[in-house]
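Quick board copy: two proteins, each given as sequence then tokens.
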Amino acid sequence: MSDPAVGSALPTWLSPVVAAASTITVHELTRFMPPDDSDPRRGAVLMVFADREADPTTPDDLAHRGELLLTERAHHMRSHPGQVSFPGGSLDAGETPVEGALREAHEEIGLEPSEVEVFGELPELWLPPSNFAVTPVLGYWRDRGEVRIASPDEVHEIHHVAIAELLDPDNRINVRHPSGWTGPGFLIGPGRDVILWGFTAGIIARLFSYLGWGEDWDRARVRDLPDHMLQGEPRQTDLAPDPAQNTKLEE
């Protein structure tokens, strides 16, 4: 694994993300920062970019060449069942965000840390309801091997999602929670029947916006969360009014 500050041998289609990692601020991703006296619990997620098979004549840019590796939380979990997320979780004592994100990805989906080149981190994001501070770690799956559901108690499905599909206006939605909270979402999966929302959708949507990507989409298109994703949801008063504040990391 190379130094996150280097990234010199990364593919050209990843260049905009590499540049953004050194310039984006927490305010472009969320309205919340950990107060000095909050002493939050800390966690990390691994935002894994990978090459996607494409026609050689396809433009050499992220939208056509790249994909993100996402997981769908097990449907029987007592909280946030079925939620789509980046691999990740709480940090163990003494772990850095990079170490924790790589460890969690290996435990959840068998992703070998040696296959991932970490090239940066996004600013730490704070979840006020649970006093959780989460660092998104950016990685490139350079030596692509195999992934699998290594922890079926946690993971229902692994999704390889093309960046082009996330940018497609037909796959953009607003997601409405029964509390009345509405935020950005994406339709993913072979049948576009899996809803990506909450913390992970918020990071993706705001990063894409910062990079100037995407096209206009119909913001009047609203989907309610399906029943299987509402089991064990926090009370309405526990929900923060921000798309990046609902995450599986609360356990």
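And the next:
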Amino acid sequence: MSSPSIDIELDSLKDAVSMALEYAKTLGTSGAEVAISKQQGLSVSTRMKEVETVEFNKDGALGITVFRDGCKGSSSTSDLSKAAIEQAVKAADDIARFTSADPFNGLAEKSLMATQFPDLDLYHPEDISPEELTRLAVLAEEAALDTDKRVQTSDGASANAHSSVKVYGNSHGFLNGFCSSRYSLSCVAIGEHEGGMQRDYDYTVARKFSDMAAPEIIGRKAAEKTAGRLGGRKIATTQLPVLFSPEIATGLMGHLVGAISGGSLYRKSSFLLDAIDTQVFPDWFSIHEDPLLVGALASSAYDSEGVATQARDIIDNGRLATYLLTSYSARKLGLTNTGHAGGIYNWTLSTTGQTFDQLVKEMGTGLIVTEVMGQGVNTVTGDYSRGAAGFYVENGVILYPVEEITIAGNLKDMYQNIVAVAKDRDLRSSIRTGGILMDKMKIAGN
């Protein structure tokens, strides 16, 4: 990229945060926190091996929240001049003077602030040109179009190189910032056979440019997945074991994130109310969180309130070990802040030792789910009903693709009915898991 590395802005952004906090102090506020994030990046998209778009972005803003005796006000500015920053602070303070007091408002406790900032190896800047990203995207499309004669159309490829710098400070004296980088490549293929059409995709993402999967691999996988879906059919309404592919298993665990997050709990909109130390999963199942995992996609030494993150078990031998709480939700619930303002950090699921392919064989007769559709998840009751597509398996062998079906159950039962987790994990998100095999689910088809 032609622009300079974003890390040279780190010191000036810290100065801007300090300036805002100092000015907030002069206004007599009871507390303040300031966050700045700046991003820059290059994105190239192609379609049928022709460049469609080339985009360069560089943006960011300063956001400030001030507290005044339980009242809260927030404002933001993209102008980091002294006058603009002071104007934003004053605006936040004016808002705080006219909002209703909430006894649970305020900064996270000072004793919880992070004091150690290890190098998590998140920043690997590369001078990447639009031509290089175009080359990757085209290579992915070429591989997709050369993989299977039934795949003769590409719905596009996208290559991206982005970096960001984030600085956070508050009136406890906390002030820190860090840089990160993220590179990605994706490809979407379209297949046609006997009048039916299907599409599917594959992607790679990494902190380091050289850690991405080769474009030829991404294109080939996109085409293979697309070709595999051609000729899909419904199956009769039944109950069968269901094996969620790793990408879909990640989403299944995402429902757990929502259910144990503080906001859902104090609003009483979770099917896991009062579930701490109760058996939610089988006793062999665990989820471990490691915020300090070097080079991972969801690592951080502190959350968005400056609270130190820490390795912990989320699920310990099947039992729910913790909720995910911010300072506000912790006070509201009368519990301890867990440092989860801003999300989760590198959840890793335990496995039962088999590969995904081995689980297909062990399942015998059942359904592999590779796609879910719709929003049919009730977080209050745990009821789960979603459109799905995948593959029908008999005697451990994939027989044909399946489409236009619905899978249904209740998340409480589904979590308890997990019988295996594959060891070949998908590491492309904050939830690191292999395929998940359910004992049985209701399947609505013909």
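Board note added afterward: The longest strand covers residues 50-68.
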